[in-house]
């Protein structure tokens, strides 16, 4: 049985659309740090972006564990209406030097809990912003393990660490990549540095949203072109008949 041109075109349209959408999906698939990189030795404002992946439940809590092998002297959360942030501190085996003082404990965990009537509903996402510093100079990345709790009791554990040469794990932990900075970039005012990084984060987020919009636009163009081709094929078949 021969396949009609219309069916072949329809199959091609479905394949093309699903391929483009599949390429766009990873950006929304898991909890991430935005922007994904910052300078070593500086202060940075970042956001933990949390998408709601459930079709029936809503996210009501986020727990983020900070890496204690590279403790941070300064951790501050940005107030968010409808959410309560709690910081837990842990004792350090080795004091951390900050502005000439010894820091004997550091924030090891941040928990954001939704107030009554607040949630991340299906199809939505939220960003939880923090200021971190001073970022370490002896590592190229910081890994933040996270737990996402839904109102039906489900807990998604974003704790798996990616390994070189292996596929990305199903539930990867958020990672902040650290790049080397020149002396001029790290000698300025810390609060100003965090503000500049905050702006960079907004620009990165805008680029990400723009990329998503372009991807969806490509999907529409692909489907439109295939649809037009189907219409032409239908007219030719009628003419032949």
Automatic annotation (TrEMBL):
Cited Pfam families: DUF1775
Residue spans of biased composition, Basic and acidic residues class: 188-210
Segments crossing the lipid bilayer: 216-235
Extent of the signal sequence: 1-24
Disordered: annotated segments: 183-210
InterPro entries referenced in this protein's UniProt entry, alphabetically: YcnI-copper_dom, YcnI-like_sf
Coiled coil: none
Domain YncI copper-binding: 30-178
Organism domain of life: Bacteria
Keywords assigned by UniProt, alphabetized: Membrane, Signal, Transmembrane, Transmembrane helix
Record protein name field: YncI copper-binding domain-containing protein
Lineage of producing organism: Bacteria, Bacillati, Actinomycetota, Actinomycetes, Kitasatosporales
């Amino acid at each position: 049985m021969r396949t009609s041109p219309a069916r072949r075109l329809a199959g091609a349209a479905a394949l093309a659309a699903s391929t483009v959408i599949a390429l766009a999906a990873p950006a929304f698939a898991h909890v991430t740090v935005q922007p994904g990189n910052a300078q070593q030795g500086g202060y940075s404002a970042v956001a933990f972006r949390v998408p709601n992946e459930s079709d029936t439940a809503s996210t009501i809590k986020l727990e983020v564990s900070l890496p204690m092998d590279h403790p941070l002297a300064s951790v501050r959360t940005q107030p968010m209406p409808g959410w309560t942030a709690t910081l837990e501190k842990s004792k350090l085996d080795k004091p951390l030097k900050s502005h000439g003082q010894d820091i004997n404990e550091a924030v090891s965990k941040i928990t954001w809990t939704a107030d009554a009537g607040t949630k991340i509903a299906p199809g939505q996402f939220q960003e939880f912003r923090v200021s971190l510093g001073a970022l370490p100079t002896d590592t190229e990345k910081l890994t933040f393990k996270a737990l996402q709790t839904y109102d039906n009791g489900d807990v998604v554990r974003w704790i798996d660490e990616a390994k070189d040469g292996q596929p990305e794990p199903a539930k990867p932990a958020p990672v902040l990549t650290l790049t080397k900075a020149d002396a001029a970039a790290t000698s300025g005012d810390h609060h100003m540095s965090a503000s500049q990084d905050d702006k960079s984060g907004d620009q990165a987020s805008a680029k990400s949203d723009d990329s998503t919009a372009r991807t969806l636009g490509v999907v529409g163009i692909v489907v439109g072109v295939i649809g037009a081709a189907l219409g032409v094929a239908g007219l030719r078949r009628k003419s032949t008949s």
